[in-house]
Amino acid sequence: MTEPQTFLSLPDLASRRLGGSVVSANDETFADKENLIKPEAPTFRAGTFGPKGQVYDGWETRRRRSSGHDWAVLRLGVPGVVRGVVVDTAFFTGNYPPYIAVEGCGLEGYPSAEELAAATWTPLLEQSPLQGDATNAFPVKSETRFTHVRLSIFPDGGVARFRVHGDPIPDPRLVDLSSFDLAALENGGYVTHCSNMFYSSPTNLISPGLASSMGDGWETSRRRDDGNDWVAIRLAGPGSVWLAEIDTSHFVGNAPGFASLRARDARLSDDVEGSGWFDLMPRTRLQPDTRHRFVVGSDREATHVLLNVFPDGGMARLRLYGALSSEGREAFQLRWFNSLPAAQAEAVAGSDWGLTEDEVRKFVGARPLTASELPAPLGALFDSR
User: Is Hydrolase given among the entry's keywords (predicted)?
Assistant: First the structure.
């Protein structure tokens, strides 16, 4: 079972920063459902009463006077495999729910609240006890890709924040695999190591969109030695990088003076410290508060990239544009299809690839598939991208 400290390092797939949304809730009498996915920590000011009582920075339902329970449905900003959830009941003391449960589902397109209500939901976390005014972390054991999650509280009460940590798995039908950001979190990029994250997380570097402030980037403490700070990123798949964007926006007096990029192919060697690293971009001068773009042109394939900053400082975003190798494309596409819930996989195989009902059931039931097991329609679609 995954330990909480392990899954907490993974991105929050439901966060508003990644495009998450609270689609529906059966009740939000005292506090709005949208508060659940705010990226910032919850706050509280005693004695701030509105027309509905004390103002809470969270989602709060009325006191139930009948059987049943309350729930909220969230659309993940980035679909993926859920590794753990956090139910934060900060400041909810006499009004938190004593139990919660979590389910997931995977659907095509952008379903309505009514369509989600009729969907097939898979348990991710059975009904579990909750503590008030606490950060409740629960590991999840699943290998299925979900697009939506449902938080159920028993019987009622308030939750400040709901975090859904996991591995992003993008839809290859929606990505041009011949030219895209190999480092992007939403494409499957992942920060594996970092020398220093004193002020903010290096995961911000590969998050969607432009940084809104200095706090929305990565910033290290001030170095007092002769070394330098760095971040290691596992790419979305094996591929080649030809353009790097190094963005120091908002960092004025604390931007790095220089940066360099190195890469390695972990398929050739597991020796992180060894000679497998090669240069993508030499040590290059940076300007404060600037979006830099550098042609890095290398035909060598890589699975990981190391960003070095000299000597320290902060950066808003890092983009690494390139293309997946043939092996990388194959793995990218298969990982998506093999992880789909059965109902969604059947919908894809039946509509996109025109298989008969019997072929669909046989095909989906045989997962996980390898490249050699792909039927002609699926293989043709993958080859065409």
Answer: yes
Specify the range with the lowest mean pLDDT, choosing from 5-9, 145-149, 229-233, 357-361: 5-9
18 three-state secondary structure:
helix
How would you classify residue 109: left for phi > 0, otherwise alpha for psi between -120 and 50, otherwise beta?
Answer: left
In whole angstroms, give the CA distance from residue 242 to residue 284: 16
Higher pLDDT, 352 or 147: 147
What is the torsional sign of CA 11, 17, 18, 24? positive
Mean pLDDT of the chain: 91
Radius of gyration of the chain from its Cα atoms, rounded to whole angstroms:
23
Q: How far apart are CA 105 and CA 120, in angstroms?
A: 6
Cis ω before 39 (30° cut-off from 0): no
Q: Of how many residues is the chain composed?
A: 385
pTM, to two decimals: 0.91
| φ and ψ at residue 299, rounded to 5 degrees | -85, -10
| Fold of the domain built from segment(s) 4-168 | Jelly Rolls (2.60.120)
Q: What's the DSSP call for residue 12?
A: B
Q: Does pLDDT of 377 surpass 60?
A: no
Would strands 53-54 and 49-50 be described as parallel, antiparallel, or unpaired?
antiparallel
Average pLDDT of the residues in 48-56: 79
Q: Indicate the fold that domain 174-324 takes in CATH.
A: Jelly Rolls (2.60.120)
Torsion, CA 105, CA 371, CA 379, CA 361, rounded to 10:
-50
For CATH 2.60.120.260, the residue range(s) in the chain are: 4-168, 174-324
